[in-house]
Amino acid sequence: MGNPPKITAVCLDIDDTLVDFTSAARSALFTLIGRDDMWPAWQHTTDEYVARAVAGELDQRTMRLQRTKAFLTDMGVLLDDETVEVLEDRRQIEMSSGWQLFADALPCLDWMRAAGLKLAAVTNASGSAQRDKLAVLGLTRFFDAVVIAGEVGVAKPEPAIFHTACQELQVKPASAVHVGDRLDLDAIGARDAGLHAIWLNREDEQVDGGALDDVQVITDLTELPSLLVSEYVTPTATVPQPR
Prior knowledge:
The protein has 243 residues and is of the alpha/beta class. Helices cover 46% and strands 12% of the residues. The longest helix has 17 residues, at 81-97.
């Protein structure tokens, strides 16, 4: 068995990794349409329009309005642009008021900073709203870099977004770990980009074992400090782990 790899940086996804985004977004969607069964369709439409924003085809505001109008149209609800704008603004207010950190987020971030690790937020969001979210929730102070797909023009799982984060942290990919809740976008994307990959499987999702090659798995962030200490060499390994 070889020596454990040395890491100096950790990249983290934001939504559904540090922030309970899905709960807030589903509640906001219910406010918009009065039902909860359309969440998969909303996600599909959102992914389509966010990809267009990341590609530079739409600005963030236009993306949101066109996404919401397209979603409602697919439901058979035909509304003029002014009405869609009112509804989308109401949905956005409802969602942002519901943002909450997972209980394990701050203790883990505190530990990693105390351990001397550089930190980057790496997110597939489409614009400045993600920076606002970090600020509102008190997360900005933890990060040496914030890499947003809508600002750099490329999204996870593309290697370029992970490499951008490493460049901003001034570390090599092999000296960085990426942690996120999506196996496909976060863990496999990071692994294929040359980073060490950790999948945050909060829902204890069962997957084919082959998909987890060279991927570490945790079920919440309380497990991350002990994993970093046991599997890697960190700048300071003597920091007491959060309880």
